[in-house]
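Inverse folding, one chain.
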């Protein structure tokens, strides 16, 4: 192994993998469960998030699914509540392919509403509840939702945004209507195909208004296999703490899918607080947590205190643990395993640190290309013949991933925005590649390190 001055690991070798392989092999049953659920599903299969949750509720009924403060919900209770919510939405005309906007803060209700929407065969539009004014109106306009479920104290902001038909259903009203609704699994959940759209997830909008990326059930279930099965590898006795908002993919996809894969528990925090973080982790008896961006640095900047190691956390998972603080963080807080990963909300590839190798984004087994790029535009550079130029072996480059049946690109709700992310005729006539907008540095053995962000999909600070 060698290092860059920044602390980034420059190489990953066979010894790095071999010495850590035994720890992975002990989790083979968890990995197989994820593969069976997520990788065997075909786009035309009647396999969906709602159906998987119903299966888990039938199998793990009495296990705790959600914790939130003093509140706890078992898998069976959560499924029944989600079914009641789904019945209310269906009575309001929500059906297959319709959009339901969700603008809720972290709570069990937010998770249950999301599950209810996908059980209806509808699309959950996950809106950032910090949005106001023109930006909020833009997001609501993209969704064109049949129903908008919102916090009661956000109703005025929604109406003041000027968005058309801004008459939300408050979560309190949804709960009131759901109190007498049926608890049985809706027939609509079993009719959803894996290729159907499950979520609209908004980009951060650092280069303009947010764009709504498309997440199908199929891609979410594959994420369950990759992140839940191969990456986090939670056990049924684990509790995963997440203070990230549900509109963020790390919470919506990585955290929820990882918990469902193993019948584990998801402990929700209201929001991130560096000073209260470890107290909440301890109060929830968490054994793992999800992070993003500079969360780990903010925690490291807190004065040392007894709770630094008075917790049960052995695993952390997320993106943005910078190489220069990696060892300092894991040593101070006693973290045994880091599942750092790389993925974009609309992307078609991912890296994941399966083997717990320090200071790497992880491994990607899929075809990739690292190419030269224009730092001002983020576009790949082409040679005189019009072809994209690969960087020399081992050098950092703009990450491209091929678009094909194995790695489909679901894009955005806006076809023009989707087309801008594609690089056509890159290496030969007729090929098509997704431009990640990210500069990555290959490290060997399929591993890579994140270097820089050129677009608006992902930011280190989240």
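Residues assigned per position:
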């Amino acid at each position: 192994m060698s290092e860059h001055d920044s602390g980034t690991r420059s190489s990953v070798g066979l010894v790095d993998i071999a010495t850590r392989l035994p720890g992975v092999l002990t989790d083979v049953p968890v990995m197989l469960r994820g593969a069976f659920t997520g990788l065997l599903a075909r786009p035309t299969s009647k396999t969906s998030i709602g159906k998987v949750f119903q299966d888990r509720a039938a199998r793990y009924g009495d296990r705790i699914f959600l914790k939130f403060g003093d509140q706890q919900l078992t898998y069976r209770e959560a499924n029944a509540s989600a079914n009641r919510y789904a019945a209310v939405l269906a009575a309001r005309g929500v059906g297959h392919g319709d959009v339901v906007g969700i603008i809720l803060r972290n709570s069990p209700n937010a998770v249950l509403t999301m599950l209810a929407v996908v059980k209806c065969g509808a699309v959950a539009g996950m809106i950032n509840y910090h949005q106001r004014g023109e930006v909020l109106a833009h997001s609501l306009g993209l969704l064109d939702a049949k129903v908008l479920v919102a916090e009661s104290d956000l109703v005025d902001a929604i109406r003041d945004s000027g968005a058309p038909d801004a008459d939300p259903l408050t979560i309190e009203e949804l709960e009131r209507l759901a109190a007498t609704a049926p608890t049985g699994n809706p027939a609509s959940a079993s009719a959803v195909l894996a290729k159907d759209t499950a979520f609209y997830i908004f980009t951060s909008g650092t280069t303009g208004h947010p764009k709504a990326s498309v997440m199908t059930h199929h891609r979410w279930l594959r994420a369950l296999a990759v992140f839940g099965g191969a990456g986090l590898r939670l056990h049924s006795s684990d509790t995963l703490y997440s203070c990230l908002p549900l509109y963020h993919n790390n919470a919506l996809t990585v955290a929820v899918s990882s918990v469902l894969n193993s019948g584990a528990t998801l402990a929700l925090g209201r929001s991130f607080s560096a000073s209260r973080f470890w107290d909440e982790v301890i109060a929830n008896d968490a054994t793992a947590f999800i992070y993003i961006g500079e969360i780990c640095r903010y925690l490291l900047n807190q004065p040392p205190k007894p709770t630094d190691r008075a917790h049960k956390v052995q695993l952390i998972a997320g993106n943005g643990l910078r190489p220069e603080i990696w060892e300092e963080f894991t040593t101070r807080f006693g973290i045994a395993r880091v599942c750092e990963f790389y993925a974009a909300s609309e992307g078609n590839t991912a890296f994941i640190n399966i083997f717990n190798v320090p200071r790497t984004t992880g491994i990607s087994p899929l075809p990739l290309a690292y190419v030269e790029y224009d730092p001002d535009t983020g576009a790949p550079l082409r040679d005189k013949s019009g072809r994209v130029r690969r960087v020399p072996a081992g050098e950092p480059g703009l990450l491209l991933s091929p678009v094909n049946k194995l790695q489909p690109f679901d894009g955005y709700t806006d076809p023009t925005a989707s087309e801008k992310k594609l690089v056509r005729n890159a290496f030969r006539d007729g090929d098509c590649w997704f431009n990640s907008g990210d500069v990555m540095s290959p490290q060997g053995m399929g591993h890579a390190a994140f270097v820089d962000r050129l677009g608006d999909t992902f930011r280190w600070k989240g």
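Confidence is low (pLDDT under 50) at residues 457-462. Residues 364-453 form a domain with the Luciferase; domain 3 fold (CATH 2.30.38.10).
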